[in-house]
Structures are given as structure tokens and as C-alpha cells.
Amino acid sequence: MKGLAAVLVCAAFGPISAIGAAVGAVLGHMFPVWLRFKGGKGMATAIGVMWGLSWPVGAITCAAWLAIAALFHYSSLATLLSIVIGAVAAWLTVDWRVALAISLIAPLVWVRHHENIARLLKGTESKIGQSGKA
User: Fold this and answer.
1) What tens digit of pLDDT does each residue of 5-14 get?
2) Quick check: is 130 in a domain?
3) Percentage helix, strand, coil for the chain under 3-state DSSP, each rounded to 5
4) Number of structural domains, the chain?
5) What is the maximum span of the chain, computed from C-alpha positions, in angstroms?
6) Does residue 79 lie within any of the structural domains?
7) Is residue 49 part of a domain?
């Protein structure tokens, strides 16, 4: 919700302000100063800013996450693939500035998921609904 709220509030000042708020919200979530730049992985905030910048892109990203998660049962895999699908959808549907912002957020989400990627490659990543590690 914080990503969506930031974008919607700043959209009143114009599209560039909304884009700046989107990038700022994701960066602020991932690298908060008060937590010594060790924050979250950013996907939920990224989806929130996508909904705020372009609800169809947000919907496509969410639908992709749900479909991939249902098919493979890995939240991290669904996250990694759906953020890329969202970026591609942005390039196909919205203004280039919005698409660029979303495309800059996507690799940040991937970087923050480096441990999940390693576990996916090793086959030790936990599946959705599984307690503990595989």
C-alpha cells in the first residue's frame, strides 16, 4: 500500500512526480537508512507502484505472479518472473518514462532475491505451503 499511496499522492503534482515517488518508495523499502540500508526485497512495494502508475500493468504483474505460483509453487520464482513480465507489459502499454522506471525497479528486485535464486538453482528453495526448507 505504501507504494500505491506514494504514487497516487504525488500524481497530483504530475506524472514525473508520480514516477519519482514510485522509484523512491521501492528504494526506500529496500534500502531504509534507519535499518542501515537493509530492508525488504521490494516486490510488494513494486507491485503497489505498478498499480499506481498503470493499473493494467499492476494487474498483469499480479496475474502473472498468481499463475506462476499456482503452476510451480515457488513464491520467489513467481516474483522473479512476474516482475519481468510487468516490465515487458509496461513497455507494451504505457509511456516510456513509466516503462523505464518499472524496468529499473525489476533488476533491483532480482538482486535482492539473490539468496532465493541460489536456493532455486540448488533445488532447496521452499515451496508455497511447505514448512521449513525442501
Assistant:
1) 888 898 889 8
2) no
3) 75, 0, 25
4) 1
5) 48
6) yes
7) yes
At 132 the pLDDT is 58
Q: What is the DSSP letter of 113?
A: T
- Global pTM value: 0.85
**131 DSSP 8-state letter:** -
What are the residue ranges of helices labelled H in the chain?
A: 2-11, 15-30, 43-53, 55-72, 75-93, 96-112, 114-122
User: Using CA atoms, how far apart are residues 51 and 53, in angstroms rounded to an integer?
Assistant: 6
Domain that holds residue 35: 2-122
What rounded mean pLDDT belongs to the chain?
89
* Residue with the larger pLDDT of the pair 70 and 37: 70
- What cell numbers appear for 107 in the block? 533488476
Nearest-5° Cα angle at 116, 112 to 120: 145
Lookup: cell for 97: 518514462
Residue 130 pLDDT more than 80? no
Residue 99 confidence (pLDDT) above 90:
yes
Question: Is 112 within the bounds of a domain?
Answer: yes
